[in-house]
Amino acid sequence: MSSPLTHGGRGAYKAFTLIELLTVIAIIGVLAGITFGVVQGVGGQAKINRATTELSALSTGLEEYKRFYGDYPWVGNDTNPNQLDPKDTSISLTGNDRAYHLFRSLGGRLAPKRLASNNNGIVQRQVDRDGARVDKYNRAFIDFALFQLERSKDSDRPNGIAPLPVPATAVNTPDPDFANALLDPWGNRYLYYYKSTATPNAWNRSGYVLMSAGPDGQATFPSTFTSQGTLPPSTGVDADNIYAQP
């Protein structure tokens, strides 16, 4: 009697050839690649949309700041190429670190032109909390709970400068964890540019520049950008920069 495993009888089956198996594997690979690309594309667009929304919220906060103080924050003209990187520890928090000062300004800790009475521009007031007089900051201009914050621990504070806590709007609400800056969806600092106290007349724009470096996390910082408001070219690493619309 013939075996159904070796002859093409009624109950016999035919094994896949090597070429057929390779073809099936190739098709599965193509389909997986397409699916992965679609998922990646959707995720990437979602981050871009989120950055655009957050930049809009920051712009609203800056407009509230201007209504409160009469002008936008003045933050200097830092050209440090590492200023986007939250892991960089070479940035001086007492100098022109614009991401830190944007955070401080929108948190009610920095007046527009650094008040002459306080070189650090810190605007503080005291309130009674549980019978003790403690410092409390001026009003915050954004809801920090809606943003990803750059946290700082004792071991990683840039240049050993103590970061400032995120201010709470209610005077009896304890301030939450320390933070240094606002981060975009890719984990890089949002950057803000406006007049410098050293050369205020050099600024040529009617408003500020507020940006994310986009998915690649890279941007160039020509001097005309940081001191005058001229945007970088929309090519190379700057092609994916995302700007707020003041």
Spell out the key features of this protein:
246 residues, alpha+beta, three-stranded antiparallel β-sheet, 3 helices, 8 strands, elongated
3D architecture notes:
- It is a single chain.
- The chain is an alpha+beta fold.
- The chain has one domain (33-243).
- Helices cover 27% and strands 13% of the residues.
- The protein contains three helices and eight strands, in the order ααβββββββαβ.
- A three-stranded antiparallel β-sheet has the order 3-5-4. Strands 6-7-8 form a three-stranded antiparallel β-sheet. The chain has a two-stranded antiparallel ribbon with strand order 1-2.
- β1 (124-129) and β2 form a beta hairpin.
Main sheet summary: 3 strands, antiparallel
Unreliable parts: 1-7, 115-124
Give the strand tally. 8
**Beta-strand residue fraction:** 5-15%
Shape: elongated
Query: Strands of the largest sheet, in order across it?
Result: 3-5-4
- The tally of domains stands at 1
Task: Report the structural category.
Answer: alpha+beta
Total of helices: 3
CA-to-CA gap between the ends? Answer: 87 Å
Mean pLDDT: 75
